[in-house]
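Rotation project, supervised by the postdoc (A.L.). Task for the rotation student: set up a whole-complex structure prediction and record inputs and outputs verbatim in this book. Inputs entered:
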Amino acid sequence: MSKTRTSRTRTTLSRRKFIATAAAGTAAAITGFPHIAGAQAKVIRIGMPTILSGRVAMLGNSNRASAQIAVKAFNEAGGVNGRTIELIDRDSQGKPDVAAKVTRDLINNDGCEIIIDGEASSGAFAVQEVIRDLPVLCIHTCSETSALSADPKLFVKTAFRCARQGIHDAVAGGTYAAKVAKEKGLKRWMTCSPDYAYGRDNTAEFLEFTKRFEPSVEVVDQVWPKLFAPDYTESITKILQVKPQAIYSALWGGDVVAFIEQATLYNLFGSSTFFSSSIGDPPVLTAIRQIPEGLLTAYRYSRQYPENTGNTAFADAFNKVAHFDPTNWGWQTYVAMGFLVEALKRTNGDTDGKKLAAEIAGMRLQTPLGIDGTITMRESDHTIIGYPVAWSHTVPKAPFLAGFEPVAWENILSHEAEWKKSKGYV
Amino acid sequence: MNLEALVACLTSASCAVTQISTALIVGTLLFLVAAGLSLIFGVLGVINFAHGGFYMLGAYFAFTAYKLSGSFIVALVAGSLGAGLFGVLFERLIISRVYGRDLLMQLLVCYALTLILDDGVKLIYGAEYRMMGMPAAFAVAPVQIAGAFVPGYYLFMVAIALATGLLLWLGINRTLLGKTIRALAINPQMVGVLGVNTAALYAGVFGVGSLLAGMAGALAAPIRTLTPGIGFSFLIESFIVTVIGGMGSIAGAFIAALLIGFIRAFGAIGFPWFVEGLMFAIMALVLVIKPTGLLGREAA
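Outputs recorded:
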């Protein structure tokens, strides 16, 4: 009897403890404990809002992996002036309002002195507005929307973009596509891009420059599958009916993987030349089981390009942490950390936003990820130039890309200047 | 609207065959998911909002089985049975406790399971997208029919879905077990009084419904990207199908799923901007004219 009572008492206590633990766990899950790496005294806290859940969590994870590699290297080298870095990342779930809240929390509650913003465009614009009111340095590492840095109304003195941008890719893509169209006589074009702001803007800009450089190009039809659509059969069969000579697609991530697999069943790529904005991301290339030969893609990242040992070493280090090759977001975050570390060295560990911004503006960073061994943070609009913008074609065996063809930055910059004028930005 | 292109397509044998095959591909896969949803509602009276989760489980089980065995048949069986068994467990351990409760309670339980399944898949397989790849037997040139090209795998997929639908219909309408299940849907107390183990029957029906969703997931695995949460995209269209066809009607689900397939296939040619709108408009129209759906029964 007493045994039973003891047992019951134990059970009750145990259950209470369990409930208390569960409640604490639930509270932690709701409020979201940040993931903290490399905590030490006198540390410089860097906050990173990024997408760590949902369909693009893999990209957010690649931001985290790149930042961790850079933080580890910085700390192991002794930091600057006795100060090391602590990285605090938080999940924004890809929602702009959450990104803004998380950024404010990182600064106000977690004491972060610097923000490395790993948000997609919608989130990046929200973070930019948070930074506008706070004196901290912010480097956006993922947003490709040109307006973020091109539109002077959005300019923030302590904010930078270390990411490729739409207008640069549009000029590069247009230049390359026009060259191929001329060589192969590709006149009838069709597009298949996701039906949302990025898909439509990206496609319109690509076509604008392709037609400008090769006026014989005619867009005979366009299909707009939903973002994250599971099935593309009706879009593919529509393309088969139109019989275009060339197709451009801004589908990305898992969507472009599914599209390629389904289109291969119909032998679509046997009759049309395919241009893609995003197949060049290594996770996409490795996810496609039987990649057709000769698909043309814009550069996202490759351990082969730029061809140097530093780039390969970065890819190996990244793969060791993330267990996949770097993504486009991954290399951009790594370079952003490079700008930050260099600026911290120059300020001797002073994290004042204005001082760091003064160092980063116009900085020409030595990095193996730049095509000439450097990437420059342009002073006038706080965005990078000189990064890889090559196009290549797919091959059936790993690493699945070959024949990188760079596009001259002088060409890109001159057309960008015209574009800025046409938009009223300058 | 491009009615000219639509008419041109309908009068061209190759275009018409291509689009009809597209309608069948889209429709039959949707039918498998919607049939399971409809069956569960028809017999158990539960609107299973977690149904998309079973589609996802089927796809991931098939992915794993294919990776381990290299056989697509094994993958298909594993995906279907795995989701079915999981459905039986879910019914016995959780959903059976909220029978007869209000809709909100059922909704919360199902939503909770969906989140748990999504996070479970993320823990095991990671958040990144995965692709099973086309089995070697189907990696062949598409079949030519009246000048149109139809991939061999899609023909297989449509055949499996149609055969499964036929078996289900025969099982429910032409067997003693089917008769008992139909009786269970109408008067469970009476069926229980007659000595039938109603709890086991409920679990079995829920399992078959989940198995159908799992089979759809397994059939989709070679051609669709797998990510945690993939079932959700299917769930909305499945609900449209069950509402149009009539909650609880397998034949209604079949007709409605094919209708959605045809709207998608020919809408892409003739009215690409109104495909989604037309689907919802038809659903609204059915709700106004015949709230029980095309083949749904009036409440006794």
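Student's summary: The beta strands of chain B are 143-145, 148-150.
Supervisor addendum: Chain B has a mean pLDDT of 92.
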